[in-house]
């Protein structure tokens, strides 16, 4: 496999908390974060002694290879952001310079953690829609900036299978954002929700306080009716 293009999304734990509306109780639950890429959520949670499992095909590469790829694509990605500034909401992140600093910082935190032998068990090289994880191994599965965002690259069947797989391994699933790369609502959202409900799962859109990509104000929450995390 070729090293996939690394878009420096590299988000921090603060952003994960806002995107997924994570409560203290959520943060103490068993979390798997799928399509996690070079985000620092795992590293920051580990520093708080709350280990999270991250899953991404990117993790088959070494820290040096990932760092090299980030360095290669980073300037181009930032140029794209500069050209399309109107596609983003500049409040929490004030401008492209701040964005670049925050994302590089998060990716450096990820790389420093990822290259430690002790951390290997927290980073799993695997791909949706088939994950080598047990049924209900986790309380919460998170998936940020992959499903629905890449609706052009992955078809409806892939989305349905991926959501079912996340529901198999976790009691609750949260997916953000629900828009595509051009900020339009994903055409797959409605059919995915219908297919999950047909299987007896609860699937609903919930507003979140985070918005960076314009229009990305909701996450999809999926649960088995009997599997609510008890407060
Ligand atoms: C835009 S990044 C999102 C990274 C992180 N979740 C964030 O929000 O900062 C998308 C990630 O999806 C990963 N990916 C691509 N195909 C995948 C698949 N079939 N299953 C799981 N992850 C995949 C890529 O390697 C990449 O790291």
Description:
Strands 3-2-1-4-5-7-6 form a 7-stranded mixed beta sheet. Helix 3 (41-47) packs across helix 5 and helix 4 (63-83) packs antiparallel against helix 5. 35% of the residues lie in helices and 15% in strands. The protein has a single domain, classed as Rossmann fold, CATH 3.40.50. It has 231 residues and is of the alpha/beta class. Bound molecules: S-adenosylmethionine (SAM). S-adenosylmethionine (SAM) binds next to loops. S-adenosylmethionine is lined by residues 4, 7, 9-11, 34-37, 39, 56-58, 127-128, 144-146.
H/E order of the elements?
HHEHEHHEEHEHEE
Mean pLDDT, as a whole number? 92
Strand order of the largest sheet: 3-2-1-4-5-7-6
Distinct ligands, ions and cofactors found in the model:
S-adenosylmethionine
Summing up helix and strand content along with how strands pair, one would put the structural category as alpha/beta
Count of helical stretches: 7
Outline: globular
**Could you list the spans in which at least 5 consecutive residues all have pLDDT below 50?**
1-8
Radius of gyration: 17 Å
* CATH A-level architecture: 3-Layer(aba) Sandwich
Beta-sheet strand percentage? 15-25%
Please provide the count of β strands. Answer: 7
Main sheet properties: 7 strands, mixed
Give the total of domains.
1
